[in-house]
Amino acid sequence: MPYPNPLDLLLNLTKAEIALVALVLCIVYSAGYFIYNVYFHPLAGFPGPVLYGGTELMKVIQQIKGTINWTLTDLHEKYGPVVRLAPGELTFISAKAWQDIYGNRQGKPLPTNEAYGVREKEFFGALGLLWVGDAAEHARHRKVLSGAFSDKSLRDQEHIIRRYVDLLVKRMHERVGQPVDLWAWLNYTTFDLIGDLTFGEPFGCLENSRFHPWISFIFSRLKMMMYGQIMITLGLLGSIIYFLVPKWVKSEALVHIAFTKAKVDNRRARKTERPDFMSHILSHTVSADARASGKGISEAELYADSNILIMAGSETSATLMSATMYHLLATPHALARLTREIRAAFSSEADIDFASVSRSSPYLLAVINEGLRIQPPLPAGINRVTRPEGAVIDGRFVAGGTNVQVPHWACYHNSRNFRDADDFVPERWLADSGSAAAPGDEDAASRYADDNRPVFQPFSVGNRNCLGRTLAITETRLILTRLLWNFDMELMPESRDWARQKTFMLYEKKPLMVKMTAVRRESAQGGNVEKA
Prior knowledge:
Layout: H1 6-11, H2 15-40, H3 50-54, H4 57-65, H5 68-79, E1 82-86, E2 89-92, H6 95-102, H7 118-124, H8 135-146, H9 151-173, E3 179-181, H10 182-199, H11 205-208, H12 213-220, H13 222-233, H14 236-243, H15 247-270, H16 277-282, H17 288-291, H18 299-312, H19 315-329, H20 332-345, H21 354-360, H22 362-374, E4 384-385, E5 391-393, E6 396-398, E7 403-405, H23 408-412, H24 441-447, H25 469-486, E8 487-491, E9 503-504, E10 506-507, E11 513-518, E12 520-524, E13 527-531
Parallel strand pairs: 2-7
Antiparallel strand pairs: 1-2, 3-11, 4-7, 5-6, 8-11, 9-10, 12-13
Helix pairs in contact: 9-10, 9-25, 10-18, 10-19, 13-14, 15-18, 19-22, 19-25
């Protein structure tokens, strides 16, 4: 009896039968994929929940819910310093891992995963500094941008920065006695500041007491940006999903890109020699042919970098300031101590500048460090990918092609790394500084002596660390000092739980409602008397 032709069988299937066959094949493939990942994948021996090691979907679910950082913290508490977060991804929280993942590694640092920059390249025609994978290309790129963030450049830019801090303080004086959203006002300040330094003009946020529409668009699309990264993680399935994204979503992104390019072009047309970010970068912007020789950056790279500078130089700094102010206001003894030290250090507001705030109060730096630890501006880590030959990370061999990272939030909230990890304790940073000068500081130094401080790397390490570290710390010192010198502040009841924020790449943006009371200073017998 002749066997039936398989092709004839397929051609004679009904639609319902075809759907059933497709469903069975999907189930069989998914089951096989899961079993392979759990038992036969090169990362199968690393600790972590079976479901996370078997499929990317568990990680994706936490990302969509905005709970990925809390989940990672719990996983590292349970499984230890390394966790398998997805079939091809590991997260680490040790000091050694920082060096192994982000350090120079004898001239061969682990590259970034350029796949995460695919949309950037699609929109601008080139990758910006953040996603350039090749070490030599990154070094060329970074050399151009690093000059804009040098100590000399920062000194040259001080008068520009202080202008916006002056305007912030003025706006707060206009609103004394009434609750203000401090998070919004700090973002107004940093966006205006970085807009001026990058594009030669502010966004007008402080002047108009509201966000520029371009900035509002960025904040409203944070989830969209996260979904874009998820699509890349999902590979072929992600590409199919991206193909189904409505055209209006892509059109909005193109409008944003066009605005960025127009801002850059307007700044280039001014040809001013004013010392700002762009004056230095433009002097190293060359044609594509000249760029091929290994010097400078191209016009497309200039556009991509400008887009990164706006977010990296503004939102993260405002988050640092907002988080630090929140935790100060929620910790009365820390607020009282820092306020007292600042007001004792400066008899006149005119004395508050970059140089003076850098040496005024060791406790101020301790407060900022603790703000960076307890609520890092970038809660996740930056992915690196191991080279084809693999790499040894924190004493364990990791197969090639693995995504690896140190997630800031999980690292700094782990009980193995920090005692009282969920508490705001600036005194822990005075232990090794020789600056203990208040009652209880010595007890704190003893209590937190075993904190694993080398894991605290909020600006990363290696040749890809944050270029804007000095700017971020300096402007935070300046703004916190000016605010605490001018105002007594009270956290409003509706913001008591402000720190508990979900994350969608960055934190969700909840208002930080604070009531300002101006400090009134009157001369009395040649001295200064403060009155609230």
